[in-house]
Amino acid sequence: MSTSSTPSEHDPNGSTRLGTQPRPSEAGSEAHRETVRAREERHYGGVKIGSAFFGWLTATGTAVLLTALLAAAGTAVGVATNTDLGTASNATQSAGTIGLVGGIALLVVLFVAYFCGGYVAGRMARFNGLKQGAAVWLWAVVIAVVLAVLGVVAGTKYNVLASLNSFPGFPSTKEMSPPPESLPCLPSQW
Predict the structure, then answer these.
(1) CA within 13 Å, CB half, 95
(2) Which region, left, alpha or beta, applies to residue 128 given φ > 0 means left and ψ of -120 to 50 means alpha?
(3) What are the residues facing 10 on neighbouring strands?
(4) Which of 96, 125, 159, 173 is most deeply buried (CB count within 10 A of its CB)?
(5) What totals of helices (H) and strands (E) does the chain contain, helices first?
(6) What burial class does residue 165 get, using C-beta atoms within 10 Å of its C-beta: 0-12 exposed, 13-18 middle, 19+ buried?
(7) 117-150 pLDDT, tens digit each
(8) Rounded distance, CA 120 to CA 138, Å?
(9) Is 10 helix (H, G, I), strand (E, B) or coil?
(10) Which of 100, 33, 107 is nearest to 66 (CA)?
């Protein structure tokens, strides 16, 4: 063993580890870590558009899945309680409550979905998580505006649902509607 090596280059058995440097003091290590982090944040910080886009994709996918789960749960509750047509038609009396609960459930779904999207964007970008979350929301607004403009410009020329003829059309006035007994899904008060 050579006498010129420093004690930090030895393991407890006394053998020399090559390529190692002495450990800095604990206070110096913390200061060095903060310096490196600040330098990385200056270099890599800011809003990352790609990360925000993938956060928006995550938020959209999560919203679709949670909405599908919510609809399936509502259907399962209706089936499990043996709700018949008469009981279901009485739901119009409590439509305000049903609408309020549905609106609250939708807000919870959107909150969870955009929380997940903001988390993904923040983790992908490493820094400035709040800015990444705001960029996810901004992507949602931009895409909604672009789709609205495309809908206005395209008009009914590219209306795929109208060309399918697979959705039933409901009459807009009572005179045009068929008698209630021919439509079992409508209440008898129609």
Answers:
(1) 4
(2) left
(3) 16
(4) 125
(5) 6, 0
(6) exposed
(7) 999 998 888 777 888 889 999 999 999 999 888 8
(8) 15
(9) strand
(10) 107
Residues 133/59, Cβ–Cβ less than 8 Å: no
Given a cut of 70, whether residue 166 has pLDDT beyond it is: no
CA dihedral angle for residue 142, residue 57, residue 72, residue 110, rounded to 10 degrees: -50
The angle at the Cα of 146, spanning 145 to 149, to the nearest 5 degrees, equals: 85
Residues 6 or more apart from 164 whose CB is under 8 A from it?
Answer: none
- CB distance 132 to 121 below 8 Å: yes
Cα three-residue angle 112-67-76, rounded to 5 degrees: 125
pLDDT digits (tens, 9 = 90+) for 27-80: 567 777 778 777 776 766 678 888 999 999 999 999 999 999 998 888 887 666
Three-state secondary-structure class, residue 16: strand
Radius of gyration of the chain from Cα atoms?
A: 31
The total number of residues shown for the chain amounts to 190
The values of phi and psi at residue 90, to 5°, are -75, -5
Residue type at position 56: W
